[in-house]
Amino acid sequence: MKKYRFYFIILFLPSLLIGCVETNILDRVGLVTLVGYDVGKEERMATTSAVREVNPEFQSNVEVVTTENSTSKGNRVKTNRKLSKKVVVGQMRVVLFGEELAKDDIHRYIDAHLENPTVSNSLYMAVAEGEVAPLLEYEYQNIDDIGQHIFRLLEQNIEQENMISSTLHEVGRDLYSEGEDIFMPIIKREEELVELSGIAIFKNGKMVSSLRPEDTFYVKLIGGNYKSGTFETILTKEEIPDDLMKNKPDEIPIAFDALTSEKELKLINKNTPEFDLNITIKTRLTEIYPDVNIGDPKTVKKLEEAISKNLSREISRVIAYCQSVESDIFAFGDKYRSSVRNSKLTKEKWHELYKNMKVNVKVDLTILRSGVFE
């Protein structure tokens, strides 16, 4: 008898557990795919949400709702009051910050999402030029779901390595690291399109400046390894070797793809501090000035050297600019902390050291094959 009672309990327990799980029927909820934050009136928080509603025939409609309150939870309640379906955030894919808000401080917003168990750590975070609300509320001719559109825009550019990645997990990790600052893509509306317009760089959770979208390539080279990717650069007349071609033009645009890279970062002086940054690049040449004879190995060697110097200069420029605004988006501070025993590094201490940091950049580029020219 005891044996049968034991089996009965085992079979009965799952039904009790299932009954405790809250279920959401798709046609009874509104799925928040994107949420944006702006500075509201009287120091309140303005929240703009893109909410997808699905009817019983599985046809979807997107509502963009803006509310103001003192907290994000309060704004969700206000959003619920404006919709016929319960708002849920389990499908949220993107968080946007208005530029004014990003320049103030975004600690509390990141913390709120990190502490929310219903929010995925893989959602993307970005900054909107100006305010978020006008970007989302605009009636685009060819964009039906603005939340999904911005998510796909970020996703495909990050996967193609054309833009830096800034998931909630990555931003939260870097925000609380003593030796690194956060960065995010910048998004803006351009007529009927939404485009990536740069990189927002932060210091202690506050946006202090931005980089051009073209600088993404250099930021990714400094911060990590390329697995694949494309890039283009321009050699000025001064950078073009004298015997590379006859009648040198003012500049030569060059394009590459199938790019892979590796970096080696070494602290050589802890007092300055000073680093050696060596970057090795292997890539394929796909486009160049037609008068350059890339069939000649000597010409290719000279071209490699000229491009390596060009990239070293550009990387040094990006690092120097970030130093000028005291934003270490490259994690030099983390390398310093791991290399110096008992460094007792804090963000404040590192930012002081970072301003005078010296980095010796050396790029070694190899052209593996010349693409369509072979």
From TrEMBL:
GO cellular component terms given for this protein: membrane
Location of the protein in the cell: Membrane
A GO biological process held by the record: spore germination
PROSITE patterns tied to this protein: PROKAR_LIPOPROTEIN (PS51257)
Domain Spore germination GerAC-like C-terminal: 197-371
UniProt keyword terms in alphabetical order: Germination, Lipoprotein, Membrane, Palmitate, Signal
Residue ranges of every copy of the Spore germination protein N-terminal domain listed in the record: 24-188
Pfam family, one: Spore_GerAC
Topology term for the membrane: Lipid-anchor
Highest rank taxon of the organism: Bacteria
Principal location class: membrane
InterPro entries: GerAC_N, Spore_GerAC-like, Spore_GerAC-like_C, Spore_GerAC_C_sf
NCBIfam families: spore_ger_x_C
Similarity comment text for this entry: Belongs to the GerABKC lipoprotein family.
PANTHER family, alphabetized: SPORE GERMINATION PROTEIN B3
Protein name: Spore germination protein
Taxonomic path: Bacteria, Bacillati, Bacillota, Bacilli, Bacillales
